[in-house]
Write a structure and sequence with these properties.
One of its GO terms (molecular function) is peptide chain release factor N(5)-glutamine methyltransferase activity. Its EC number is 2.1.1.297. Keywords: Methyltransferase, S-adenosyl-L-methionine, Transferase. Methylates the class 1 translation termination release factors RF1/PrfA and RF2/PrfB on the glutamine residue of the universally conserved GGQ motif. It is an enzyme of class 2 (transferase). By secondary structure, the protein is α/β, with parallel strands linked by helices. The strands form 2 sheets. The chain has a 7-stranded mixed β-sheet with strand order 5-4-3-6-7-9-8, with helices on both faces. It has helices spanning about 5-15, 20-35, 40-45, 50-65, 70-75, 100-110, 125-135, 145-160, 205, 225-235, 250-255; strands spanning about 75-80, 80-85, 115-120, 140-145, 165-170, 185-190, 235-245, 265-270, 275-280. Helices cover about 40% and strands about 20% of the residues. The chain has 11 helices and 9 strands. The chain folds into 2 domains: about 5-65; about 75-285, Vaccinia Virus protein VP39 (Rossmann fold), CATH 3.40.50.150. Strand 4 (about 140-145), helix 8 (about 145-160) and strand 5 (about 165-170) form a beta-alpha-beta unit.
Length: about 290
């Protein structure tokens, strides 16, 4: 089978199985099997696949047809222009979350000797991206899952920033050393925010494969954020930012968790125009 034939067959197979991103998925899986990027696939379209490559491609297509996410099939996902290792132990990084990373980066670039924490780090996508893009940054990355932290450490090592990120296992900000209180410039939080009653209604490739620990945010999706806010206020320096990714329709409730005497809060929209990110600045004494 030639590369061009494999690509066409894969697209048709996934389309027949009602995979919305059939064309893209077939290309990504074929690139993974052959080690060729999209341009090379086109230039070498008349090259034959080996028997082993055909078998591997067929197995991946079968798994994708059943709903398994492409990122888990390839073991990789791009975020902020960087390649990240992903496994079923971590939530797959989403383009929407780049808004949080970009907002954090813009603030941190203005701080001398910046310090930041990434709560619910998962794959480490946010922490590692910030460390790569801001060489002077020192970070603490926290997750409840030991398996997720193992993946995050791999990604930090892959991008050679592991010496600037301290990985801690535990609940929210509890593992942070008390010496950091009042010193952090940014606390980034992409915590579970899907209401418990909506989990079963998620797309199959999310609800059936991604870790529910990284999805379920309680009754209204904001349980963990309610617990985070008071601790974040203790650890941020005056003028520091708490960044919380939320789901559509949660902006007003999220802002109500932030007492106006302690925080200046606003909600940013993502590229699709959805309210996606709560930014809360810790009010300084002079502002009160």
């Amino acid at each position: 089978m030639l590369i061009k034939e494999a690509l066409q067959t894969g697209r048709q197979f996934l389309t027949w199985h009602n995979i919305p991103s059939a064309h893209l998925d077939a290309r990504v899986l074929l690139s993974h099997v052959t080690g060729l990027d999209y341009t090379a696939l086109l230039l070498q379209s008349r090259q034959p696949l080996t028997a082993e490559q055909q078998q591997q491609y067929r197995r991946l297509l079968d798994r994708r047809a059943y709903g398994e996410p492409v990122a888990y099939l390839t073991g990789h996902k791009e975020f902020m222009g960087l390649d990240f290792i992903v496994t079923p132990a971590v939530l797959i990084p989403r383009p929407d979350t780049e808004l949080l990373a970009e907002t954090a980066l813009a603030h941190l670039r203005q701080q001398p000797g910046p310090l930041a924490a990434d709560v619910g780090t998962g794959s480490g996508a946010i922490a590692v991206s910030l460390a790569c893009l801001l060489p002077g940054l020192r970070l603490w990355a926290v997750d409840l899952s030991a398996e997720a932290l193992a993946v995050a450490r791999q990604n930090a090592q892959l991008h050679r920033v592991d010496h600037r990120i301290t990985f801690l296992q535990g609940n929210l900000l509890a593992p942070l050393p008390p010496s950091l209180q009042g010193r952090l410039d940014v606390i980034a939080a992409n915590l579970p925010y899907i209401p418990s009653g909506e989990i079963d209604g998620l797309m199959p490739d999310v609800k059936d494969y991604e870790p529910h620990l990284a999805l379920d945010g309680g009754l209204d999706g904001l349980d963990l954020y309610r617990r985070l806010v008071p601790a974040a206020h203790r650890f941020l320096k005056p003028g520091g930012l708490l960044l919380m990714e939320i789901g559509p329709g949660q902006g007003e409730a999220a802002c109500q968790m932030l007492p106006p005497e302690d925080w200046q809060a606003e909600v940013k929209h993502d590229l699709a125009g959805r309210r996606r990110l709560v930014t809360a600045r810790k009010i300084t004494r002079a502002q009160k």
